[in-house]
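tool=predict chain=A
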Amino acid sequence: MTVHQKPTDQKHKTLGIIGYGAFGRFAAQHLAPYFEIRAYDAVQSAQDWPAQLVSLEEAASTDIVVLAMPVQYLSEIVLAITPYLREGALVLDVCSVKKRPMELLARLPAHVDILGTHPLSGPQSGKSGIAGLPIALVPMRGSKLHQVKAFLKDKLSLVVHVTTADDHDQEMAYVQGLTHLFAKVMLSLPKKELRLKTTAYRHLELMVDMLRYDSDDLFRAICCDNPHVSDVVEAFFTSVEDVSLRLGGAKSRDWQDDDQSHIGGTVLTCQSRFQPQNNSINKGFKSWVER
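tool=predict ok
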């Protein structure tokens, strides 16, 4: 069955997607065979397929409500949809961070179930299919976890990880915080056409290409709304400084690997050009992200 087909013998539940941008449309394509999709976006688009574009009230009155916007806008949406949520509805978010979104979702009425999700894929990484890709689930309220987990595994063939908000954010500080930082830095470098590329460099290019079209809102959410990213970034730049100092005229005998074995006897003459002060790293990084 393709994402364009609907099972003819299944009674469909309604599913509302609030935030019908690139990820909202990507999700709708894979969910359309199983649900009647209704979508709302503050900036209405002519690209409605496979969803029916509706009002916020109609999208929030469905059996399942998916909040597909960056965490920066979640508080406002939680307040806006509250009057329209039906009893027993399931509300999910798809934010790349989980601690702050779960705190906001907790404000929803007691008569709805709440489940945090983070699909670790998107329009670029999932353009050839989503089978085998991971998704994180953070249960909060209600009894629908096992039903959702079974659907994601059996129907969408995703690899499901059940976790907590804090454990999720700790892992994402490395998995997304560092990779998005690398990508932004690489994209900021002067462009140069290269003919000679190692396999490792080609993999680096693939990573950058996969992330180059992610929105600035997503980048800010990953780097500023995850409480663990600042520690990881500080550790990263501390390591960069350490390597820079080693390249700044130290003899290679002072540069040892994990086994404490000597590398050689020549003098390294590279001058260190980047030696950040640790106490200014986080402030400078956040200023750069928020520009």
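The two ends are 45 Å apart (CA to CA). Residues 1-6, 255-279 have pLDDT under 50 and may be disordered.
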